[in-house]
Write a structure and sequence with these properties.
The structure holds two protein chains of two kinds. By secondary structure, chain A is mainly alpha-helical. Chain A has two domains: 44 residues; 195 residues, Orthogonal Bundle (MetI-like fold). Chain A is built from twelve helices and no strands. In chain A, helix 4 packs antiparallel against helix 5 and helix 4 crosses helix 10. Chain B has two domains: 161 residues, P-loop containing nucleotide triphosphate hydrolases (Rossmann fold); 67 residues, no CATH class. Chain B is globular, with a radius of gyration of 18 Å. Helix content of chain B is 34%, strand content 26%. Chain B is an alpha/beta fold. In chain B, the strands form two sheets. In chain B, strands 6-7-8-3-9-10 form a six-stranded mixed beta sheet, sandwiched between helices. In chain B, strand 9 and strand 10 form a beta hairpin. The chains are: A mainly alpha, B alpha/beta. Chains A and B meet through helix 8 and helix 9 of A and strand 6 and helix 2 of B.
Chain lengths: 291, 255
């Protein structure tokens, strides 16, 4: 990549090939976090505008006020008092247990399906069925089987997470370059080492895709199950306010859900992924560089 | 002393969706290699060169016939250098070396580093393959094959994906490292120049995987590119291929 060329008159779609030599202001305007913040601000503005023209949509200020009352345990009027940490802790606990069970099972299943034909025959269809079933089905089934206990939501997380991990990891294993498998065989690399370095190492990129999807869909189905079949947790609390026609509460809890899942992705999964992919030194081309 | 015995080796690939006709890669090939010699198998595309090496390495099975690679009567340890480097991109260079190594200890890391130094890559042990050029990755592939202390070294056109200058410098590395160990080597190529520069013997194949001719080369080593004696043998090999009517398949390459 050379120095930026002087392209003369810039049109609206022209960009310099690199950020080299760009001013601080130009770099800031092109930095993804800045653009992300800008997009968020825009979204909130649109939301606020809709709330302003439609009284059924709570404004952002209302939502924030409501959630502050929830967090502080203050009064919502009448006998209703704020409750925040207990539902959150309950849901997080179920989520963590569900992931701790589902992720390893799904990963093991995926590696098996990818690596062995017999496992593909045995589990592939089951996994696809699991993948095709919407979370709400698990919600009703779990409620039927376990009543309103904690196991319903946990089972729903497990059953949602397993197929996402399995499908992605098995695809990852099958995408391992055949030349590498042949190389391992020609050097008589023992099975254990092949499993760790070739199979697991090679399917890690798809494993991460699976993990991210599993984290998101797992959280989704947890909320749905709590909505329909639980007496505690974030989903239950959101429904509580929905049934009470207190929309700022309902929307506030949904927002909280979105914020939590985003934080989890940014603070935990992204750094982990970057660390796992430090071998991939080739810079990812951005759209403008490809132009 | 290692021996490779190839008897009446035939390999036929069944029809596939992409290629509805069955393909005969090797058609009754017989040859034997004994001792610390460097043998080049030269032939045009479709003469079954890669298939031959894969069968010797045990990663493919023959349709009929037999291949035995033995060291003092027991199956020989094989070191394979492929056309492409075939390194695990998610492991560092030294971990790629240790991946194929029998033992895991400080000594094997030292050995890995020793062979990396032999190919001029002493300082890249902890880098990832993507941080190396294509030629450097191929040198790692060569070092890896020597690291397992092979009885038989298999090389499948290891320089064909590289530019001419890099290819030539890698041939020098290979020649130097081979001279130190003098492993029984089976090297397949379609490039007559590199075959003559490297080999003690050239086995010429014709399309369909049958031996056409066998030439011994008795020139002192290390051989230099452009040396008149090397050039004479090159001409002789090409003349024989001409006689076979196969030279057109080479085009300008290797001439």
């Amino acid at each position: 990549m050379g120095a930026p060329q002087d392209l003369g008159g810039f049109g609206p779609f022209d960009v310099r090939p690199t950020a080299e030599g760009a001013t601080i202001r130009e770099r800031l305007l092109r930095s993804p976090p800045f653009i992300g913040l800008l997009a968020l601000a825009l979204l909130l503005l649109i939301w606020q505008w809709i709330a302003w023209v439609n009284t059924r949509v709570p404004g952002i200020d209302e939502i924030v006020r409501f959630m502050v009352t929830e967090m502080s345990g203050g009064s919502h009027g009448g006998a209703l008092t704020g409750e925040f940490w207990a539902p959150l802790a309950t849901s997080m606990q179920r989520y963590a247990v569900g992931l701790a069970i589902g992720v390893p099972i799904g990963a093991a299943l995926g590696l098996l399906i990818g690596a062995f034909r017999w496992a593909r025959g045995l589990f592939n269809d089951t996994v696809l069925v699991l993948l095709a079933l919407p979370a709400v089905v698990w919600a009703f089934l779990a409620a039927l089987w376990f009543g309103l206990s904690a196991w319903g939501p946990i089972l729903a997380v497990v059953l949602t997470v397993v197929p996402f991990m399995a499908v992605n990891l098995s695809a990852g294993v099958r995408n391992i370059e055949p030349g590498l498998i042949q190389m391992s065989r020609s050097f008589d690399v023992p099975f254990g080492r092949r499993f760790v370095h070739l199979l697991f190492g090679g399917s890690l990129p798809s494993g991460f895709t699976g993990l991210r999807l599993a984290f998101m869909t797992g959280w989704n189905s947890l909320l749905i199950v709590e909505w329909f079949g639980a007496t505690s947790g974030v989903g239950w609390r959101a429904r509580f306010w929905y049934d009470a026609l207190r929309y700022p509460g309902f929307v506030g809890w949904i927002f909280l859900f979105v914020i939590l899942i985003t934080l989890l992705d940014r603070l935990l999964l992204s750094p982990l992924e970057r660390r796992a992919f430090r071998w991939n030194q080739q810079p990812t081309l951005t759209f403008e560089e490809e132009l | 002393m290692a021996t490779v015995l190839i008897e009446d080796l035939t390999k036929v690939y069944p029809p596939t969706i992409n290629n509805p006709k069955q393909v005969q890669a090797l058609g009754g090939l017989s040859m034997s290699i004994t001792g610390n010699v460097f043998v080049a198998v030269v032939g045009p595309s479709g003469s079954g060169k890669t298939t031959l090496l894969n069968i010797v390495a045990g990663v493919e099975l023959p349709t009929s016939g037999s291949v035995r690679a033995l060291q003092e009567g027991v199956p020989a340890r094989v070191g394979y250098v492929f056309q492409e480097p075939r390194l695990l991109p998610w492991r560092t260079v030294v971990d790629n070396m240790l991946y194929v190594q029998d033992r895991k200890s400080d000594r094997s890391r030292r050995e890995a580093e020793f062979y990396l130094q032999m190919v001029g890559l002493g300082d890249v042990a902890d880098l990832y393959p993507s941080q190396l050029s294509g030629g450097m990755q191929q040198r790692v592939g060569i070092a890896r094959a020597f690291l397992v202390n092979p009885d038989v070294l298999l090389l499948d056109e290891p320089f064909s994906h590289l530019d001419a200058l890099t290819g030539r410098s890698l041939r020098d590395y290979l020649q130097r490292i081979w001279l130190q160990s003098r492993k029984t080597a089976l090297f397949v190529t379609h490039d007559v120049t590199e075959a003559v520069e490297l080999a003690d013997r050239i086995v010429m194949l014709r399309p369909g995987g049958v031996t056409y001719d066998d030439i011994s080369i008795d020139l002192p080593r290390p051989r230099r590119h452009g040396d008149p004696a090397v050039r004479d043998i090159q001409d002789e090999v090409l003349r024989r291929f001409d006689a076979m009517g196969a030279a057109v398949r080479f085009g300008a390459e290797g001439v």
